[in-house]
Amino acid sequence: MAAYALPVTVKTPKLRKNQVYLVASGDLRLSANQQCWPEQQKMEEALKRALAEQGYELVRAHGFKADAQHGFIASQKEGLDVFAKMDPKAPVIVAEAVWQYSHHVLPGLLGHQGPIMTCANWSGTWPGLVGMLNLNGCLTKFAKKYTTVWSEDFTDAFFTDTLRKWLKTGHVKHPTPQAVPLSKVKVGGAEKKLGTVLAAQLKANRAIMGIFDEGCMGMANAIIPDELIQPTGVFKERLSQSALYYATTQVSDEEALVCRKWMEDRGMKFVVGSNEETELTDKQILTQCKMYIATCRMADEFGCDLVGIQYQQGLKDLLPASDLVEGMLNNADRPPVKNAQGNVIRDGDPIPHFNEVDECIGLDQLMTVRVHKAMGQPMESTLHDVRWGDEDKSGTVSEYVWVFLISGSAPPAHFVGGWKGASSERQPKMYFRLGGGTLKGVSKPGEIVWSRVYVEGPKLKMDVGRAGVVELPEAETNRRWQATTPQWPIMHAVLYGVSRDQFMAKHKANHILVAYAKSAEEADKAMLAKAAMAAALGIEVNVCGTRKSGKGW
């Protein structure tokens, strides 16, 4: 019998019954991990105290890296190595006070046999709750069981009760009474017919989703498998960011300057300086205008109904930020771009862009644009990060006000004053080494439809609801901006019939799609028509919350 060199079986340690692992996923960028580390330390100390009060010891599964000056898992390989040395059946808390790349820990979590809890601080600073929601969406996609919790100081009753139950049972499911299956919702005949007809049209005349590289920042939840998206009538055109980079270099300075002047003529303000390292410069803006023109032409050349640019991996080392480009694309009123035949590309219409290549948002945008166009509603939409939320400290609004914030891809049509209310500031150096401007503004008061398409197990699902955008005093808006990222566009949103904790328990992503309607009644109808369209495409839909009046569906 032949003798083979068998691999040595590595014995993993066994935790005691009163011990719980802690892992912390970080960014890929060293500068971000170093700057955010102090906030993570504060959270971990609070968690240690909370576990100790329950009679448990928190055991860090990986140490502080003196050479890197932080204690985050900073790559997928590092994460795999960490989990390989852990007790596979021990409970583990994924503690997040910062934005994190989910694929650093996702493979290890999917193979882990013990109870899993994802936990975030309630802060908009870096922010941990965005990272946690993204990881939750990834775990949901692969049907991995987990418990999730969040807290401002890790001493409140909601947190301590959840922690206690999880330590005792291994799993806690939060109630989500706000989510009602569409089958139990009365949809008007006209809205149902419109949604059904639009779905049949999409399946018959199929659409193309342009993908400039998948998998941005480890967001596995943002990738819809081909076998799930193709039955809806949507097919992916897999494009390369290197091709976009080349196309950008082929646009002339003259064309780019005309593009910038078009925006400035409409009131857009660029906050420029001369230091390439720390300020927005004319050179950066010129390149961003070239990228916009190149994207329009590539979308036209490949027949893409919508596009998504990854940027954060790959393109970030070649070009200034793509966010100004994305906001321009999402606006119906935007600088005209001609194709090779001399025709203006999609004149008067947005070219929907799904930030960070979130394909779930892209599919949602495609439905939103078609429903809103048929109903005569505004076609502009954008995703936002579910960045944070807080009580209105000015006392202007009694309801809980969410901070929806994104890195710059919101359309000016959403802002107070439109293009005149828009400005562009340099992206933070920590994330955007080559700079580039944002498309910043304060979202105007009005009625919106919010939604999220997501993958759960082998199914496409969708949550939809209604909300209002409220106006807050300038001081309160600035307080919220300073607590998050003041260079980015902001939306003050009040969800109808959905509490903070209900939303967090149900939402399966870091992103949320928003689109305005002309009135509350029209927003209700647009939401139901989109829900009907999604259902006709085979998507399982939940209607969340209530109408503006508080009346149910």
Furnish the topology, listing elements before pairings.
Elements: E1 19-23, H1 30-53, E2 57-60, H2 76-84, E3 92-96, H3 106-111, E4 116-121, H4 128-141, E5 147-151, H5 157-169, E6 179-181, H6 189-204, E7 207-212, H7 226-229, E8 234-239, H8 241-249, H9 253-265, E9 269-270, H10 282-301, E10 306-309, H11 323-329, H12 359-375, E11 381-390, E12 401-405, E13 423-424, E14 446-456, E15 459-469, H13 474-482, E16 490-495, H14 500-506, E17 511-517, H15 520-536, E18 540-544
Parallel strand pairs: 1-2, 1-3, 3-4, 4-5, 7-8, 7-10, 9-13, 15-18
Antiparallel strand pairs: 6-18, 11-12, 11-17, 12-16, 14-15, 14-17, 15-16
Give a structural overview.
The protein has 2 domains: 19-169, Rossmann fold; 183-544, L-fucose/L-arabinose isomerase, C-terminal (L-fucose Isomerase, Chain A, domain 3, Alpha-Beta Barrel). The chain is 33% helix and 19% strand. The strands form 4 sheets. A 6-stranded antiparallel β-barrel has the order 11-12-16-15-14-17, surrounded by 4 helices. Strands 2-1-3-4-5 form a 5-stranded parallel beta sheet. A 3-stranded parallel beta sheet has the order 8-7-10, with helices on both faces. The protein has 553 residues and is an alpha/beta fold. The model has no long low-confidence stretch (mean pLDDT 97). The protein has helices at 30-53, 76-84, 106-111, 128-141, 157-169, 189-204, 226-229, 241-249, 253-265, 282-301, 323-329, 359-375, 474-482, 500-506, 520-536; strands at residues 19-23, 57-60, 92-96, 116-121, 147-151, 179-181, 207-212, 234-239, 269-270, 306-309, 381-390, 401-405, 423-424, 446-456, 459-469, 490-495, 511-517, 540-544. It is globular and about 70 Å long. 52% of the residues are buried. The chain is built from 15 helices and 18 strands.
